[in-house]
């Protein structure tokens, strides 16, 4: 009898929750907050919080409630956390997702419930193509786009052959496919490593060295990027074969990669020194709010996600039930992105510029990333034709 | 041909590193009958100590030696404060308690050093490739790992087989009650053995640190491999751990190096590149399963107790 009483009470509480939620904007944020890649999740959370500070902690006059959930970099955990946010927290937006495999596992839950999902990093090819959805937007890129830009840059440099190395998961495959789609030279070899457990790349580096390729391309986000660069330099290959990267060197890995990263080029849609006003404010205030830290592209994308949400809620005057109007507003990109202006394609993936970034010593004597050139302008991902949305 | 030599060296280096980790684990497991899941945490602490001391002293060798001493002391303190109360307990209790220690160490590191991880850069003289035979260059640092690990293995062999302490350790492994009854201070012996195991784990951690990054949880993945090795080698057997570690290191590396190309001959390119990493990481577990079926006690079982 007593049990039944408690059960009834709990159910009443659960039912009462959505009614309370009506006068605030509820946002679920799924990212990695534990383990070696937690630094990425922290950077995303820091930037999202900074964006909310800049919005005065209110969206269209309503208080904002953010629920951060840790996906532990595991697809099954990410899916559970997404289900929790959708079904029991009943959030209005879900933001985050570093990892393509985590996003792919979580996607259906969000889309089926018609909850807006904003990917602030992961961009699997499926999301841009057959799995595109009116409720899903990206403030990052489709995985292939960045390595495609690297491939284009390698063509400009006249590189004749390349050896590709990347991790064996959704994003790793997209990245290597991306380089191959634009690089005009010969692909001498292609190696996939176990993700995320393999940390020693000696076998792959030895093969790359013996393949007589003119260059090496890698994609290793997070700590793996540090390990790869260390081993690449220690093996003495840095003096022999130049390295090209995507998402391997950023403001989080650079303090650990140190001089090993000097002169290793990469491509990115956002670099900390992009000269627009929003970006200057973002970078300066981030460094003020979090002393000793520097924002990364992960953070920049999360910052944009908060502003994208703000634009949608303001457009419907806070009536979060008007999903179609919110979708139409978000498609207009009616906010100022820290990467500079961009447009959305039919699949809600940005059409944007990609820049060449290099590692240099800055005025403070610290290693930092610098924009060198624009590799491609207004680049659209190559899967948008497969998306049924027009 | 050179490729094979180089990949064999890669495998040997990986195997020897695993040996350092597995040797401590097998000593503690075999002699003290104690399951220590926190062995990986000592490996992590070795790496963090080394990164800190090398930054302080500015010398890689000095910092590494200090880190080794620090891990030894930490191991002894850990045994004295926490673990000796668990010897009489069930294995399950030991697993639970040492799992708790993993969480404790991870959060202690997060508090002291922060969540971002540390870098342990190598001195310039270790970052050059060395020509070992004409035409084959090998990273100096990986070569140093091979030399140091072989020296440690030889030293361990001498200590265990040729000294009085070693005799006591072997005696402890085959019959604990009896050496206690003969008036040997078994408590002190256990503390020493645990300290030695901790120092070996610390050595593995600090030598691995410049190749990988120093980060929270770095000991957990590699601990699984260490357990595989002591199962293959025979629990409590240093010689078994040595042979099994080299087997595992070489099989793992050769699998990663040559399996993809072999598979590409039978499968389509895309299928082969997806299947190969998965299959090569399974090889060592296959080896373990086969050994468990054919010789459940491992390749070189320690003397029966």
UniProtKB/TrEMBL annotation, chain B:
Indicate yes or no for the key word Transmembrane: yes
Which GO molecular function annotations are given, in alphabetical order?
transmembrane transporter activity
- Does the keyword NAD feature in the UniProt annotation? no
What are the UniProt keywords, alphabetically? Amino-acid transport, Cell membrane, Membrane, Transmembrane, Transmembrane helix, Transport
Report the record's Gene Ontology biological process terms: amino acid transport
Where is this protein found? Cell membrane
In terms of InterPro entries, this protein maps to:
ABC_transp_permease (IPR001851), BCAA_transport_permease (IPR052157)
- Provide the topology term for how it sits in the membrane: Multi-pass membrane protein
Q: Where are the transmembrane segments?
A: 12-35, 42-58, 64-83, 95-120, 140-160, 181-206, 212-233, 240-259, 271-294
GO CC, alphabetical: plasma membrane
Q: Name one Pfam family in it.
A: BPD_transp_2
Q: Which family does the entry's similarity section mention? A: Belongs to the binding-protein-dependent transport system permease family. LivHM subfamily.
UniProt-recorded name of the protein? Branched-chain amino acid ABC transporter permease
Which organism's genome codes for this protein? Answer: Bradyrhizobium pachyrhizi
Its taxonomic path starts at: Bacteria, Pseudomonadati, Pseudomonadota, Alphaproteobacteria, Hyphomicrobiales
């Amino acid at each position: 009898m007593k049990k039944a009483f408690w059960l009834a009470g709990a159910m009443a509480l659960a039912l009462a929750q959505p009614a309370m939620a009506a006068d605030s904007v509820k946002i679920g944020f799924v990212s990695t907050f534990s383990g070696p890649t937690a630094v990425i999740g922290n950077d995303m959370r820091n930037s999202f919080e900074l964006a909310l500070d800049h919005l005065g902690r209110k969206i269209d006059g309503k208080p904002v409630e953010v629920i951060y959930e840790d996906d532990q970099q595991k697809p099954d955990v990410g899916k559970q956390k997404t289900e929790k946010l959708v079904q029991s927290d009943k959030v209005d937006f879900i933001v985050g997702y570093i990892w393509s495999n985590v996003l792919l596992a979580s996607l259906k839950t969000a889309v089926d419930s018609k909850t807006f999902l904003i990917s602030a990093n992961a961009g699997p090819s499926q999301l841009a193509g057959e799995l595109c959805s009116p409720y899903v937007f990206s403030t990052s890129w489709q995985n292939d786009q960045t390595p495609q830009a690297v491939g284009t840059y390698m063509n400009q440099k006249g590189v004749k052959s390349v050896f590709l190395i990347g991790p064996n998961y959704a994003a790793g495959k997209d990245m290597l496919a991306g380089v191959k789609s634009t690089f005009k030279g010969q692909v001498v070899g292609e190696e996939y490593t176990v993700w995320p457990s393999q940390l020693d790349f000696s076998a792959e580096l030895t093969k790359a060295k013996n393949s007589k390729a003119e260059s090496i391309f890698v994609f290793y986000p997070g700590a793996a990027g540090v390990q790869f660069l260390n081993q690449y330099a220690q093996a003495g290959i840095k003096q022999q074969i130049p390295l090209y990267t995507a998402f391997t060197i950023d403001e989080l890995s650079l303090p650990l990669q140190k001089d090993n990263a000097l002169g290793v080029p990469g491509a990115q849609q956002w670099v900390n020194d992009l000269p627009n006003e929003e970006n200057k404010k973002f970078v300066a205030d981030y460094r003020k709010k979090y002393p000793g830290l520097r924002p990364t592209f992960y953070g920049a994308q999360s910052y944009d996600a908060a502003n994208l949400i703000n634009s949608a809620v303001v457009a419907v005057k806070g009536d979060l039930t008007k999903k179609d109007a919110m979708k139409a507003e978000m498609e207009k990109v009616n906010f100022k992105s820290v990467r500079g202006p961009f447009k959305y394609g039919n699949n809600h993936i940005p059409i944007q510029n990609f820049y060449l970034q290099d590692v240099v010593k800055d005025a403070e004597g610290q290693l930092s990333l610098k924009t060198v050139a624009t590799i491609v302008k207004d680049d659209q991902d190559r899967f948008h034709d497969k998306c049924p949305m027009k | 041909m050179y490729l094979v030599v180089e990949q064999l060296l890669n495998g040997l280096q990986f195997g020897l590193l695993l040996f350092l980790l597995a040797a401590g684990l097998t000593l503690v497991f075999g002699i003290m009958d104690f399951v220590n899941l926190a062995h990986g945490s000592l490996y992590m602490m070795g790496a963090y100590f080394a990164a800190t001391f090398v930054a302080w002293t500015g010398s890689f060798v000095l910092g590494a030696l200090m880190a080794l001493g620090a891990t030894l002391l930490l191991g002894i303190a850990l045994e004295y404060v926490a673990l000796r109360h668990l010897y009489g307990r069930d294995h399950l209790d030991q697993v639970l308690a040492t799992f708790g220690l993993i969480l404790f160490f991870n959060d202690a590191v997060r508090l002291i050093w922060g969540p971002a991880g540390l870098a342990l850069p190598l001195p310039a003289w270790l970052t050059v490739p060395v020509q070992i035979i004409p035409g084959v260059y090998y990273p100096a640092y990986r070569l140093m790992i091979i030399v140091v690990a072989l020296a440690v293995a030889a030293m361990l062999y001498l200590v265990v087989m040729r000294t009085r302490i070693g005799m006591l350790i072997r005696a402890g492994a085959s019959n604990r009650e009896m050496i206690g009854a003969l008036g040997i201070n078994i408590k002190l012996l256990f503390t020493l053995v645990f300290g030695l195991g901790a120092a070996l784990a610390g050595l593995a951690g600090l030598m691995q640190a410049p190749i990988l990054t120093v980060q929270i949880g770095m000991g957990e993945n590699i601990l699984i491999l260490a357990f595989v090795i002591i199962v293959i080698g025979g629990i409590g057997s240093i010689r078994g751990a040595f042979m099994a570690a080299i087997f595992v290191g070489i099989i793992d590396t050769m699998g990663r190096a040559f399996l993809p190309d072999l598979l590409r001959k039978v499968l389509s390119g895309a299928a082969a590149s997806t299947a190969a990493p998965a299959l090569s990481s399974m090889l060592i577990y296959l080896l373990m399963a086969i050994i468990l079926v054919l010789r459940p006690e491992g390749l070189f079982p320690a003397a029966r107790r």
